[in-house]
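Regression report. Comparing outputs from two consecutive submissions.

Submission 1:
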Amino acid sequence: MKGTVLITGGAGFIGSHVAARLLRAGYHVRILDSLVTQVHGDTPDRPSYLHPDAEFILGDVRNPEIVDEALSGVDAVFHFAALVGVGQSMYQVAEYTSVNNLGTAVLLERLVKKPVRKLIVASSMSIYGEGRYQTAEGEIYDQATRSASQLRAHEWEMKTPDGRPLQPAPTPETKQPTLASVYALSKYDQEQMCLITGRAYGLPTVALRFFNAYGPYQSLSNPYTGVLAIFASRLLNRKRPIIFEDGQQIRDFVSIYDIAEACRLALEVEAAQDLVFNIGSGKSITVVEVAKRLARILGRSIEPEITGSYRVGDIRHCFPDITRARRVLGYEPQVDLERGIEDLAAWLERQTARDRFGEMQAELAARGLVV
């Protein structure tokens, strides 16, 4: 399928890479983005990293007239417009709900009147809350939680209610979501609104649950999203990366180039319809190890600081089972973590990063969101 593709939020980190990938594949790409200051700075303008052939419209996805303009002549839509940040969503509840939920509702109402051939919505690993676990005997356990008393006692790892230890396992799309933050709730709402509306109106719709994306063009001044970008900002300012709990949290870090390719596949593969897909690297690593790797590749002899504190809304372990994406989309990650971090580091050397981690930590602590 070739034609015109609209990417809402397309001036952001993921959207800009998807735009470049689709342009190389022969599509015309239009971007709708409001250029929020937290990501794009106090005097936002069209980002220099946007592909020059991408058409750009400055506007808010909550504005029906702007959305109508953006949808004119469009064949497919990637809906990426969203505020991103677990911690911040816990005190900017109205703004996150407005942008993420209302913005999606406005887009869908316009799509009902101006249908397209396919809609792809960016979902998030955050909707799972805790990932899948299993007992020593191999019994699947999908309801793992940690009580406030456990967290205060620094008992970080998961146990069954009767005290048996649990081991993390790859999380499939079939795991029931456990929503631990307003951000997670809003992303689940985005995903489900799109799928429900798509089914009702015969609009082929795909939801992509992205795991921890990293790569060039990531915002280095937004302390609420992108753990590698946050660590990089600290290291570039010769400060220690700050890690909550004990640093042994397990995550999946996926290159932005693999994500962009997954998006192209979701657009072009006909069988990708009315389905959700995990998009990750298929490899897992602890947070402390990834911080150490980044420091080494950046040439900074700086050890991370392990705080032993806990942020409300954070989860312990979550990494994906990507079997469905491999089987249906033909998705196969190409960029391993070492090469991906080296590519990120080469870009970082040309950047100036404003370290705002302290501001974020103070905001959360003032609201009792750091334990």
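Submission 2:
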Amino acid sequence: MTFPVDPIPNALAEDIGSGDLTSAFLVPTDHQSAARIFAKAEAVVAGTEVARAVYCQLDPEIAITVRRQDGDLVHPGDTVLEIAGRTRSILTGERVALNFIQRLSGVATITRKFVDAVAGTGAEILDTRKTTPGLRILEKAAVKAGGARNHRLGLFDAVMVKDNHLLAHPDLPAAIQEIRQRHPKLLIEVEADSIEQVREFVRLEAIDVILLDNMSPEEIRKCVALRRTGLKFEASGGVSLATVRAIAETGVDYISVGQLTHSAPSIDFSLELCAIAK
């Protein structure tokens, strides 16, 4: 797995620093072991390939077998990775590998709960840019493992006109038209916080999506009724597992949920040495 900005070297350097003192003093250099990483709670697993990459960067001679793929449901005791090689390497990489799997599985697990909550409505769950700095691409991959869809990766791959942009009083129709001419295939989305704004934005045919910000289900339903061909609606703000079904049943196309990445609780995984060879 490759990343635009690889977070793994930073994570290893942060944890190891000048060296793993405990393993250096207690574990012989040539000592070999087998180990496994296993779930300690029910979860949707994510980050297995990241954990593999941790060990491959730490010790290219270590052998890794992925037993559960990202997106798989696991139960307590289920093995997700098997590791064989130098005991020092296994122990030195343990915490970094576990940190990635625990965090990313947490994202995938809560994502699956939201996806299941809107099943059958036709609405799709989207993530946001409310991600851990340096881990966005990993957390967005975990969202996909949980069954949801990625929104824009960053500021560079879609246009999202929000209220703060509108405070600059741009000539919005002209700006939208220029964007469409220069970038014919780029997604253009505009945020609205009232039905009056929605009526205005619906007339701009170059807009692909209207984001309905912090609206009630009743307000969302009225906005969706204004739909024209090719236009989609996204609901955002105040979305929780308790409210997402009602929002989905309004006929909205997408529901963006910041909680998927900014508040996902980590899932407990552990590493144990299974076979030790001198």
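Expected: both submissions complete independently.
Actual: both completed, but the second showed a warning that disappeared on reload.
Relevant detail on submission 2: The domain at 115-262 is CATH 3.20.20.70 (TIM Barrel).
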